[in-house]
Design a protein that fits this description.
The two termini are 38 Å apart. The chain folds into two domains: 78 residues; 47 residues. It is 32% helix and 19% strand. The protein has two helices and four strands, in the order ααββββ. Strands 2-1-4-3 form a four-stranded antiparallel sheet, with no helix packed on it. Helix 1 packs antiparallel against helix 2. The longest helix is centred in the middle third of the chain and has 25 residues. By secondary structure, it is of the alpha+beta class.
Length: 142
């Protein structure tokens, strides 16, 4: 669903849990591994092994998360939202840009050709560079 603050051509992005703070988390893991490794040099025998082990675990966790993040995650690109308006009597269709408040089966007016009811038949996203297929609304009797 498109929120009120978005324009007609913007699409909501897919929110991945925990994706926003990854650079901070990576920095904390690297910092933790460096601190543990450095502290291990100045610690007595049993403690230095524990600190070096923690440093290795933090660094391996960093590498695993880094690989998982850049493993071909599909990126969602913004698309333009369009609507398909159709007449329920004469089945004439017209494609146009999405308008705020549109939803499928919403009545949008009278058909200029037959006087029937125009309704939104479909809402869909297309590549922004794709031309409109049916730009003109149905016009008077032919």
């Amino acid at each position: 669903m498109v929120s009120e603050s978005m324009s007609a051509t913007e699409q909501p992005t897919v929110a991945m849990p925990g994706r926003g703070n990854q650079p901070l988390f990576w920095a904390l893991l690297i910092t933790l591994s460096i601190i543990c490794a450095a502290w291990g040099f100045f610690s007595p025998y049993p403690y230095n092994l524990i600190l070096w082990g923690l440093a290795c675990i933090a660094f391996i966790l960093f590498l695993v998360l880094l690989r998982r993040n850049y493993r071909g995650v599909p990126r969602i690109e913004a698309t333009e939202v369009r609507r398909l308006v159709a007449c329920d009597a004469c089945n004439i269709e017209s494609e146009g840009p999405f308008q705020k408040g549109d939803y499928v089966f919403r009545e949008v007016g009278k058909c200029p050709r037959c006087g029937g009811q125009l309704y939104v038949k479909a809402l869909y996203g297309v590549d922004e560079k794709a031309p409109l297929k049916r730009q003109q609304p149905p016009i008077g009797p032919s």
